[in-house]
Here is the input.
Amino acid sequence: MIKELKKLLEEALLEIQKQENWADFEMPEINVDNVKQEKFGDYASNVAMVLTGKSKKNPMEIAGKIMEILKSQKIDQIEKIEVAAPGYINFFLSQKYFAELIEKINQEKEKFGNGEKNTEKVMVEYSQPNTHKEFHIGHLRNVFLGSSLVNLLRKSGQEVITANYIGDTGTHIAKCLWGLLKFHSGENLDEIKNKGEFLGKVYSEANQKLEENPEFEEEFREVQKKMNDEDPEVIKLWEKTKQFSLDDFKKIYKKLGVAFDVYFFESEEEKEGKAILPDLLKKGIVEKSQGAVIANLEKYNLGVLVLMRGDGSVLYGLKDIPLALKKFNQYKIKKSIYIIDVRQSLYFEQISKILELMGFKEEVLHIGYDFVSLKDGKSMSSRDGNIISAEFLLQEVINQVKKNFVASPDPDSIGIGAIKFFMLKYSPNTKIEFDMEKAIGLEGDTGPYVQYAHARICSILEKAKDFEGKANLELLKHEKELSLMRELNKFPELVEEIGLSYEVHKLPYYAISLADKFHSFYNACRVIDEENEELTKSRLALVGATKIVLGETLRLIGVSAPKKM
Here is the structure.
């Protein structure tokens, strides 16, 4: 509806421009927004105030002229237009509009809110765990952000390729391999039950031993050199333990309901980076400095990015550059989105500038997120062994759900949904202190609260299966019915908005608001009334529409929509 109102306002302004003979008139940017307080209508525009500077007219006067032109058109979707100080134009949607909305939702079902198809491809790279380290709750935030964004972008009509870039090379892996050879050489690795957890502990142990015993440094460096030189024994151990990690990751992804279209590996991109380095040097995009290879971006206020150390070790930039080229050339994408923590913001500006200097005009976009800490506020570190593993957290939450929701036929989906909802409701730039008790609560801004609303709706519809026939939706006039319909009306515009802004944290808050409106409606309006069959049918149509939108919102977040709690 926002697009239609913008068009109507533009036409009205052109009409006023003719009537008033405004000189040098330029069409301003027309904003139409949802109104926060329902007493002021459904939508509002401040365009009259924007025009005040050029027209030298009072904004209330301009708003009044716009209102009169729009009223003369007798627009079916609009019941009333009002002007409010200091110059807002408020629009009230008609009963006919809301009736058509409910009918539309029930006809289109899960397709309601779908955007127009966009043929340009977008790649979203997320998760990016390092092998030989444990998958912890910080990794979960990345996965939830990425998967929810992908769902939303596809809903908004964009073609999305999902990618996971695995960190399978580097110093941390050499340390883990050294630790295995030094302290666990006699163990049968195949018999170890929790292999990902074991590798994480070996990595932490190796760090601790190296710090306590400087004489071990030479041994570690030797293993690192063998790895770089592709020594058969070390490479065999690397490949075996790398697969342990990959198997562990894929188990977690399956549990979380996440899948990737393509996997990339640091070890492969490192080789590609070394291969393109001579060309980058020849073109002057990078240069040698004190034995290292750098990209000097100081004239762009982006500092210096070291791509290769003097000892020949390749850093992240010389891997991300060939990976970006592969994405654009092989997958024909127009935009590459990276979900990576906020500390990498400058780094991705540097990578984007290097690609631009190489002649690539496609967009590289970094969406950063902040840390997840323990409840006492202490940050986690794989190096220190101070982490909560994803597997442990998932199981702990599921166990608690089983206690709190004894009758639930699917505690796993409620538990996992609670974690997803809790982490996604925060803006990505906000630090999270994870609190299990808050996450699984049935009251407040939680996943179970919204899931309960959906389950309640399913129960109502199950009880009302005998009421059939076409509903007269213009009977829905109660203030709580109208309030619920207004909330349903926001969904398509929210999908479009997040498809442009990538602010997926707005989805959980919409879900909470919709659940609130439903509960308020249900408490005030008797849905099943055998003595008033026509009104019952109308309210059941509204309940059915709410089920569709609430279920689809939960799906976009990545949370299940249970029929029973």
In short: The first helix runs from residue 2 to 20. The chain has three domains: 2-93, 126-372, 411-557. The longest strand covers residues 158-166. The mean pLDDT is 92.
